[in-house]
Amino acid sequence: MSDTHITIDETEAFLAANPNVTWIDLILFDINGIPRGKRFRRDDISGVAKNGVMIPSTVFVMDPRGNCVEETGRLWETGDPDVPFRILEGTLRAVPVGDGRHAQAVISVTEPDDLCPRGVLAKQVAAFADQGRTPVVAVELEFYVTKPQTNGAFKLEMPDGISDDPERPMTFQFDEIDTLAPFIDTIYKVADIQGLPIDAVMQESGPGQFEINLKHKPDAVAAATDALLLKRAIKAAAKAHGLEATFMAKPHHDWPGSGMHLHASLVGKDGQNLFAGDPISALFRNAIGGLQSTMCDFMAIWAQSANAYRRYVPKNYVSLAAHWGLNNRNVALRIPRAAGPGTRVEHRVAGADANPYLVLAAILAGMRHGIANKIEPGPMANGEANGTEAPQLPTVWYNALERFRASDVVRDAFGPEFQDVYYRLKQTERMEFERVVTSLDHAWYAQVA
C-alpha cells in the first residue's frame, strides 16, 4: 500500500491556523474498526510528522474490549514488536467540539502487515487499477441516539422530546431532527472542518434512529476512512450535547437494526460507468453474480459481532438470502433506480458496527471474482422474493465463521494470514460471549427446568 504522508509544512501550517489546539489524537482503526492510538501534545506533533510513531503490532489482534487475543498466535509468539506508523496527508484536522483544544489525524502502518484492514482494502483497489478500473463507492450509516448512563454503562433510553414508541416511528419526518437540531448541526460542523463529504440526514424507522449518507468517492480507501471518521464525529457531537450515539447493529430486540449500506460502481479509464446498460451491462451482471455467489463466504465480515446476527429477521429490510433486484429494498443487492453514470449496486447486508475497510474489500473481491469468472447471477427477485432461488445467508455466527475459514475466495482476497487470524480472533470472541449465562437464561429456564 502506498499512502501519502503528512509533510512538516502541512503540520506547521495546521498549528499556525489552530493556535488553540493543545492535544492531537493519532488514530488507527483496528480489525473491528475501533479507533485506537496515542494522544500527543501540540509541541511534539511536528517531530511525529517527521519521524512517525511506534505502535505495538498486537493492536491488530484486539477484541472489542481491548484485549489482545492470544489464540491468534500473534501475541507471545511474536514478542509483541512495535511497528512504525506515519500520519496520513490531509487528515490532521481540528475537532470543533468542547473547549476546542483537540485535533486528530489518521495514521497508517508503513511496513507490510497482512492484518492491516486498510491494506486489505488497498489490495483490492490496486487489483482493479491494474485492469484500468476504479471503484466509486459511498457509505450510508444508521445509528441510534440515547441518554448516557453513569460509569460507562449503556441503556437505550430516548433523549427528552424523542418518542420511545416503536409503533410511532415517524420515518422520513422531521420532528426528531428538529428536536435534536443542535446535535445534528454539530455533526455537520465537525464534518465540514474535517473534510467529510456528508450528504443528507434522515429520520429512520426506530425511536431516536437516524441515517447519514456520505457522497460517492472514486477512492474506496478514503471513503472507508471517511465512514470511520464520521462515526467518530457523530459520537463526539453527541457527547458535546449530553447524548450518546451507538452504531450497535441491533440495540433493541423490538426496534429496527442499524445497517451500513454500501453503494458501488466501476468506471473505466475514460471515466464512463462500466455498469451502465439497458438496464445494466453484462459486466455488471457478472459483478452481481460474484457478489451473490460469495456473499455467504464473507458473512463473518458483514456481521462481525454476536449482536450483529440479531439484526437478521424477516420483513425488516434485511435480506436473509443473497437476492438481487431492481429498485427493491427487500433484497441484499439492490440496483437503485438510476441510469447511465448513476448505475450502481447497493449492498445492504452489513451491520452498522462492521469495519468499512473490510466490508468494502469483501464487496470488491466479490465483484472481481464474478467478473473474472463471468458468473451469471440467479433470477432477479421481485417484491418479497418468495420462491426466488438465492444462497441462504449463514445467520448463525458459528456457521458464518466456519464458512469464512474454509473459503478459497476469502483466502485469495484477504490472504491466508488474515483469514486465519480473523477467524481465530472472532471465534475466541464468540466462545467468550456465548459462555456467559445471562438474566434471560434465568428468566426463561431456571424455574421450569
UniProtKB/TrEMBL annotation:
Pfam families from the UniProt entry? Gln-synt_C
Every copy of the GS catalytic domain together lies at: 117-449
Keyword list (alphabetical) reads: Ligase
Looking up PROSITE patterns in the UniProt record yields: GS_CATALYTIC
Could you tell me one molecular function GO term of this UniProt entry?
glutamine synthetase activity
User: Which InterPro entries does UniProt cross-reference here?
Assistant: Gln_synt_N_sf, Gln_synth/guanido_kin_cat_dom, Gln_synth_cat_dom
Q: Which cofactor does it need?
A: Mg(2+)
User: What's a single GO BP term from this record?
Assistant: glutamine biosynthetic process
List, alphabetically, the SUPFAM superfamilies matched: Glutamine synthetase, N-terminal domain, Glutamine synthetase/guanido kinase
Q: Which family does it belong to?
A: Belongs to the glutamine synthetase family.
Q: Under which name does UniProt file this protein?
A: Glutamine synthetase
